[in-house]
Amino acid sequence: MEAVNPTRAPIEATQLLDGNWILLYTAFSELLPLLAAGATPLLKVKSISQSIDTASQSIVNSTTLSGPFADLSFSASATFEVRSPSRIQVEFKEGIVQPPEIKPSVDLPADIDVFGQRISLSPVQQSLGPLQDLVANISRTISGQPPLKIPIPGNRSSSWLLITYLDEDLRISRGDGGLFVLARQGSPLLEQ
């Protein structure tokens, strides 16, 4: 697909580049532990996305994980400089950890697969009444708390991104660490 890229100057095609992009595939080694954690029975990767705003030359990478008790969201904000019609230099500024979004009830699957054996969680679900009350109290305590902002140190803050394919629904990018395939939020590609 990269060889037949319909957009010869992706960085200049702001109407195509701007927006929220959902990660479909990556070979980026630093994301693999996160994706592996999301493959466990009780923790799922709900979404990994990248929002690009060419007017402000900013990028926000966001991840949301979903567990039985809460959804956890964190992001990294960055600015960028255009280096060529298809390449940008990215400078990460800060990480942001949102307060957990506590679920109104514990969300456990009926059963899980552990080393090839199905294990029923119904006995655990039946004993969660007191735990759900505790979760509700925690939810009331942390709701409305501001996010935790963490500066990203200089030695890990710089990166680059080469956009090798861009159309109205799909973007393929290469960075100093991997390949990224993303679909625009709302694209029919996400329904497949």
UniProtKB/TrEMBL annotation:
Pfam families: PAP_fibrillin (PF04755)
GO CC list: plastid
Domain of life, source organism: Eukaryota
Protein name according to UniProt: Plastid lipid-associated protein/fibrillin conserved domain-containing protein
UniProt keyword Cytoplasm present: no
UniProt keyword terms in alphabetical order: Membrane, Plastid, Transit peptide, Transmembrane, Transmembrane helix
PANTHER family xrefs: PLASTID-LIPID-ASSOCIATED PROTEIN 4, CHLOROPLASTIC-RELATED
Domain Plastid lipid-associated protein/fibrillin conserved: 1-183
InterPro entries in the cross-refs: PAP, PAP/fibrillin_dom
Membrane spanning stretches: 22-43
Protein location: Plastid
Family under the similarity heading: Belongs to the PAP/fibrillin family.
